[in-house]
Amino acid sequence: MRYLTAFALLMFTAIAAYSQNVQVLKITDLEKRIRNNSDTIYVVNFWATWCAPCVKELPAFDSINNTFQKNRVKVLLVSMDFKEDLESKLLPFINKKKLVSEVVLLDEINGNYFIPKVSEHWSGALPATLIVESKKKVNSFFEKKLKYEFLKNEIENILKEKTNEK
Asked: How many Å from the N-terminal Cα to the C-terminal Cα in the chain?
């Protein structure tokens, strides 16, 4: 019994550690973060634990994070799961999949309000990915499952454009 209690405490501690890393944001907080940083390229993926195509593409985003770690490229995985599922579904999922990219939870329920703030081209379907290079410039928006090579090429093209602008 003593070992079971110690195991339960260890598991709770592991889950609690992840919960410290998953911020719950409103769309205005997300906008400020990705649009007010002119020296970083943000790759923002909107996904959910219940979305099979989303789950399949997550390793590509972690690989992008690794490939471009020396550049100013930041992968941000924006979970569209319900806020009340943070502890019971999202955190165990992050742990099981060993995600290394930063995960945040978008706490919004009115799609008519937040979807157009992400992209005027977004129907609300998942997965969706936004690539933002500067304060107001959106380089790319994709409403489909993406593969590593495609993402890598998109980011390399943006990096080349930034280099040519200097």
From this structure: 65
- Contact in structure between 24 and 114 (CB atoms under 8 Å): no
For the record, the structure tokens of 130 come out as 């936004």
Split into its structural domains, the chain has a count of 1
* Structural domain range at position 61: 22-165
Give the count of beta carbons closer than 10 Å to the beta carbon of residue 50: 14
91 close to 11: Cβ distance less than 8 angstroms: no
| pLDDT at residue 11 greater than cutoff 50 | no
Dist. CA 42–CA 155, nearest whole Å:
10
The CATH number of whichever domain residue 29 belongs to comes to 3.40.30.10
Per-residue pLDDT of 43-54, as tens digits, reads 999 999 999 999
pTM: 0.85
Residue 9 lies in a domain: no
